[in-house]
Amino acid sequence: DAGVIQSPRHEVTEMGQEVTLRCKPISGHDYLFWYRQTMMRGLELLIYFNNNVPIDDSGMPEDRFSAKMPNASFSTLKIQPSEPRDSAVYFCASRQGANTGELFFGEGSRLTVL
Amino acid sequence: EDQVTQSPEALRLQEGESSSLNCSYTVSGLRGLFWYRQDPGKGPEFLFTLYSAGEEKEKERLKATLTKKESFLHITAPKPEDSATYLCAVQAYGAGSYQLTFGKGTKLSVIP
């Protein structure tokens, strides 16, 4: 398996623009997580899905952030409008089953908002 | 609220100089504690799962141990390729038990 695939790897945009990050989880994994990593706050959970259904989005910072999982092999995280404080590395991770803490992470999308 | 605190934030070791990284946690009921390794520009990579106090897991030069309040990652005779950030995470029972809470990590540098 190719692992969790994220795109783009790097994104530089201007404040106010829409940003869409994409994720393809490992085939057969039924949980998908979106995390954000910064030096100040470390890894923060934004939202997670089980069988394509959003379960907990309490980590989404505000209404500018939205996430979808239209099918088992694709998820998006959208920021509209983007702000400089959204600059971070965004990770997607997937896992199989609930009773494990073994997450498989993608290589991340580094977002810079000018 | 679950909390994970890792120390030190950064650690520089000479090759062969053994040491330990600490992970202190506060959780209502521990379902599992996990160690991950993160290389620069990469996503975290799973290393170990520990479930109960007294449990130990080993992998090459790494050994993870668990008590009721903290976990240690012991590194024996480290090599430069062990340089990475090591992350600790906890999973709790109850509401939200399907997610992990991560610490900020310890950045380990092993100097040849």
Q: Gist?
A:
The complex is a heterodimer of chains A (114) and B (112). By secondary structure, chain A is mostly beta strands.
On the 0 to 100 scale, the average pLDDT of chain A is 95
User: Could you give the distance between the termini of chain B?
Assistant: 41 Å
Number of extended strands of chain B: 11
Helix content of chain B: under 10%
Major beta sheet of chain B, specifics?
6 strands, mixed
State which percent range the strand residues of chain A make up: over 45%
- β-sheet strand percentage of chain B: over 45%
Helix and strand succession of chain A?
Answer: EEEEEEEEEEE
SSE blueprint:
The complex is a heterodimer of chains A (114) and B (112).
Chain A: E1 5-7, E2 10-13, E3 19-24, E4 31-38, E5 42-50, E6 53-56, E7 65-71, E8 74-79, E9 88-95, E10 104-105, E11 109-113
Parallel strand pairs in A: 2-11
Antiparallel strand pairs in A: 1-3, 3-8, 4-5, 4-9, 5-6, 7-8, 9-10, 9-11
Chain B: E1 3-7, E2 10-14, E3 19-26, E4 30-38, E5 45-50, E6 56-59, E7 62-66, E8 70-75, E9 84-92, E10 101-102, E11 106-111
Parallel strand pairs in B: 2-11
Antiparallel strand pairs in B: 1-3, 3-8, 4-5, 4-9, 6-7, 7-8, 9-10, 9-11
Structure in words:
The complex is a heterodimer of chains A (114) and B (112). In chain A, 0% of the residues lie in helices and 54% in strands. With 114 residues, chain A is mainly β. In chain A, the strands form two sheets. In chain A, strands 2, 4, 5, 6, 9, 10 and 11 form a seven-stranded mixed beta sheet that branches. In chain A, a hairpin with a 2-residue loop joins strand 5 and strand 6 (53-56). Chain A is globular and about 40 Å long. The model of chain A has no long low-confidence stretch (mean pLDDT 95). Chain B has 112 residues and is an all-beta fold. In chain B, strands 2, 4, 5, 9, 10 and 11 form a six-stranded mixed beta sheet that branches. In chain B, strands 1-3-8-7-6 form a five-stranded antiparallel beta sheet, with no helix packed on it. In chain B, strand 6 (56-59) and strand 7 (62-66) form a beta hairpin. The relative contact order of chain B is 0.33. The chains are: A mainly beta (114), B mainly beta (112). Chain A binds chain B through residues 4, 31, 33, 41-43, 45, 48, 50, 55-56, 91, 93, 98, 100-108, and chain B through 31-32, 34, 41-46, 49, 87, 89, 91, 96-105.
